[in-house]
Amino acid sequence: MRSPADRRILELLLRAAGLAGLVWLIAGSFMSHRPAGRVSLATRWPMSLPEWSLNPPADSLTVRLAAIPERPALDWLVALRRAGTHVTWSGAGLTALAIEVEPRGDPAGGVLVRAGGVPDRTLALRDRLGALDSLRLGRVGGTAIVPAAEGVVAATIRTGESVTAAVGAGDTLRRILVLGTAGWESKFVVAALSERGWMVDARLAVAPRLTVLAGTPTTIDTSVYTAVIALDSTAAPQADAITRYVHSGGGLILAPDAVGLRAFRSLLPAGPGRAVAPSGLPVERVTSRAELPIRDLAPLQPNAVALERVNGHLVAAAGRAGSGRVLALGLGETWRWRMEGDESAMAAHRSWWAANVAAVAYVPVPRGKEATDPAPLASLYQSLGSPVNAGSGANPGNSLSWVVLLGVMASLLGEWASRRLRGTA
Amino acid sequence: MNARARVSTTRQQLSAAVIGASLGWGLAVAMILLLLAALGDLVFGLAYEIRFVTRIGAIALGVVAALVVLLRNRGAWHIEGVALWLEEKAPNLNYALVTLIQGAGGSIAALEQHVAQVDWRAPVRRRIGRGTVPPLLLASIATGAFLLLPANAVTRIRAPRPDDGFLAPRGSGESADPFRPLLVRVMPPAYSGQAERTLENPIAVAGLQGSRLLIEGPARLEALVAGIGDSGLSVATNGDHWSISLEMPASPRVLTLTSGTRHHLLTLEPEPDSIPQVQLLLPSRDTARRAVTGVVQLDARAGDDFGLDSAWFEYIISSGEGENFTFRSGVLGRHAGDDNRSVAFTALLTLDSLHLAGGNVIHVRAVARDRNTTTGPGLAASETRTIRILRADEGDSVSVDAMAPAQGDSSLLSQRMLLLLTETLQRRRPRLRRDTVVEESRAIARDQSALRRRVADVIFMRLGGEGNAEESEGAEGESELTPEALMRAASDTNMANGGRPLDFSQDESPVVALNLPLLEAYNAMWDAGRELEIGEPGRAIPHMHAALDAIQRARQAERLYLRGQPKPVVVDLSRVRLAGKLTDASPAPESRRETNGEVSARLLDRFTLALALLPDERAVDSLTVLRIDALHTAPGFAQALAQAIAELRTGRDATESLVRARRLLAGVTATTADLPSWSGAP
Amino acid sequence: MSEFVFATAQYESGDWDSAPLLPANIIDSVARYTGLAVAPTGIIVSLGSQDLLRYPLVFLTGHLPVRFSQEESRMLRELIARGGMLFVDDHNHDVDGVFHRTAVEEITRVAGPLRDLPNDHPLYSAYFHFTDGPPTTSHELNGWGDNLVHKHLQAVDRDGRIAVLYSSKDYSSEWNYHPETKRFNSVDNTRFAVNLVVYALTR
Predict the structure, then answer these.
(1) In the Cβ-directed half-sphere of B252, how many Cα atoms lie within 13 Å?
(2) Which other chains touch chain C, taking contact as 3+ CB pairs less than 8 Å apart?
(3) Strand runs (DSSP E) across A66-110, as ranges?
(4) Measured in Å, how far apart are chain B's first and last C-alpha atoms?
(5) DSSP assignment of A244-267, as one string?
(6) pTM exceeds cut of 0.90
(7) A119: which of A110, A192, B456, B485 is 20 to 30 A away, CA to CA?
(8) What pLDDT is attached to residue C60?
(9) Taking residues B285-294, what's their average pLDDT?
(10) Are A214 and A201 in contact (CB under 8 A)?
(11) Contact yes or no for A197 and B674 at CB 8 A
């Protein structure tokens, strides 16, 4: 500044800016506390809850959260709100994490854990007994099939936040109905599922009007059967009953020889498709599932899901029909895989059929008694609503307020320094 | 007393002190070790083996400590060493004493006088006191402390015995667990040669099947009842302890000890005695031989985990064919195992003595028996080798059998008859009219033709079992094939075409095999028949001789077919499908098989139920029983469970072991960094 | 859907091919009494080959001593473990014969001990009903072999199903004729074979 007059103008502007900032801050402060209330420190507010319960601090209360509160503290705040205190919250950077746990429809046990949260985070899974495994989240979440878990499953990230969900005790239905012609395929499908622990009923046609019954086949109903497996055309006479069963929530698996049946067209998630490998005894030994006779199930129906492809052919597709689920399979004569494969083939065949059943089986899951919190951030929003003053500059907790305060201080300091340097008191 | 005498006295005093210090330190070290062992036994209950080793170790270390002290103070044994030490402790001697002792010269009297003026008794007394009091004091304290321990604890350390396990280290004090201490003596069967073992407070007792078990405990338990499953065991009380004697069961079981409301589980895990392993080295493969004489070398090797009783060779001779077989068997080369774990044995199989004939098959194998006198004996055999004696007419291959008797015999007779008839006609011909000759000649020609058709049936083996090549040709003369063409085709079939079926016309079954010698006879018969048809029996006779010769050759020829290629029978399914009476058919419903699921799933269910009982003691019992059931089906899980059970029983944290056990049983977690659109899919 | 193929086991010892017409006869009966898809001819499969596992029902017969090689034992164990079934018939119909003694010894070694199959076992009602148990063969009645009428078949049980079925009744002789001859029989003596096949296919 060359002239003292210019400097005086500058000092005036600085003073004005400082005062304006102060006014803005004070006004913002008054506005944020309308009506009069108090702000608790983020880390200590849970300790104040008993005091607040006895002596409500004000008509309004805003808690500043650095982490999602524990369920009891959250419930306490909800109780305060219901007692008449206007409780709100603020906080930024809270970690969104959710977990879902359900037993698999498989007598061998197992728990399906699905988790959602910030991508690339790794969750540590544990249950009542101890550590289970770790699960890395992808773009939309992550899935873990835990062979055995008990009680409450907790998922914890490195920062210490955790979510919990109860396993529950589903798996009340354990019967499957197999419909087909007597033969190696039907025999070994029944055997595989029985070995897995399913109670299997079967109707196996031997001659016209002559059927071998295994177990006690009865009315096809969701109260009796977890799933029905139709292996070939001998299931066609019961197509109406099966369709009703599926629409009311039952699971249906259609083997390649049943996929082409007109009676099941309305239920098909894909197909009916066409055979791309000749059936009959393969010349070569079948050592893997990919070497089995294939029926390409394409095209896939809308809303159906392709589950498996072999050499570009769609061989497993699942879809919903009414309340039930239908799985169409394009791999036939799977008994050859069990018999001719390597030493693990028998177990693999069994697991594969069990997984097919699990894909369509409906397993009612009663609620567990354990207190859990599968989605804490969602619970916070549900309990206390959205955070307040998230974008307001008057909120002392807001970084903008600090910027303005610093600006005010800089302006006043600059104005004072200018005057001193000019020689004025 | 001169200086040398004074030094000598001092040397004796110091030597005695060194010996005392040495003994003191040795005793102190030994007693401290024993005291520590006794305290450890009080707290943890040390096993007999540890206590035994500790006692030996204490003595050894005491001796070492004493020797070290002796070695370190070896100067006290020599007068020069003592004199030097005195010079060090009494500087006013001014080396007069050393000079005197070593006789280095100088005035002895002056030196004696100088030494006499010095009194070194004080440093000697101090040295003796410092060297002997601390070790003796330490030894006394350690010994006193050791003796102040409970009497049982002292006894268990002082004189450990394999059977002192039931002596509670705390003396008469009650243990927190009334079933501790528990002592199990495992006495393996004598044949095994294994040493007897003693286990203290075991969770599981492993031992050779058939071992005798002696389970003992202190007799402070009231109304002790023992049992395995539903069967009870008798409990004997002998003075200060009770005992149960039983034999190791054949399969893993749980022994339950019950006293009032308390019970204790002990798993018994038998280790089976493996059967011997036998390997037949010679003959190394199946063989065939023509000679029924000679010697066959037999060589075998056998091994067993505890020792072999005997080993030998067995043979079975089968003879006959079709439905009629006879068998003879025998044993040779019996070899005493002499309790060896591995033996090699040989024998010679003398064929002459076996009275063998062609077609006989000798089946030979080696057999071994182990010394298992409790659950055995274990008997095992090697693979079997066969020695086949070829028939006289069998030489091409060991895998062929003679064909059924050919129809050529009847053809032979008929052809000979026709030849005789023709020769007779030829002899009578000069006396007969031409038309008579022609008539009789044509009659023979018809028989010749019929015979030719029968031979044709033998020659042409057609697919589907229908012969009659001649008939399929239709009437005579309708055939498109001359004998020459037939021969050429046959030759092509058997040589050039490499077995390709010979097809005469499209509506016939293809010929799959030809009998060439009979084909030659067939052709000769054809020629003979043609000559006979035109009334020329004389010209037919050479052809008929040729046919007869060919038939004889065919009869003598080997006619073989390969085993494993019986004539295929193809069932006409469309014709017979559901042609049977189904009135009697009514498949009974199959009762559902018990479905317990996979072994691991069943164990996992039980494991989860047992964990739900924690921290109750019943959880440990459940895990103990579960472990027994998992020993064979999931050994890794059973091992992890054993550790968890041990930790739970001793009050330690078993979380890690239990988590590891669960992982071993349930398998690994499958994870995907995605939320699949369809859950539960394979 | 694959068809049922009747397989005869070829083993290294003994005369495994002593009943060559039996497969056709059983195939004929399966087609005659059921609607099951069946191959028109039987197949011969080596007991020690991997191909054995392609045929979950395997027939074995013979007169001579049976000694399984290591490979044959291994494959047989594998067949049984995976759910297959072996049907063994003593062509000698003689419990003192070497086939019986050696076959029982080998079966015990490979699969476990044979036990009498009760005559009300589901095998006897799997299709036709045989209330008295296994049908008697003419060879049992004519005094050949051990001169005994065997009241029971024997079996090795595996998880509630027959893994190895053993017969001393000589069905190998009884059923070893051309199926065309069947029309002359007043009662078809191969009906029990249908039970056998249906049992194997459904249990």
Answers:
(1) 20
(2) A, B
(3) 86-90, 97-103
(4) 108
(5) HHHHTT-EEEE-HHHHT-GGGGGG
(6) no
(7) A110
(8) 97
(9) 83
(10) yes
(11) no
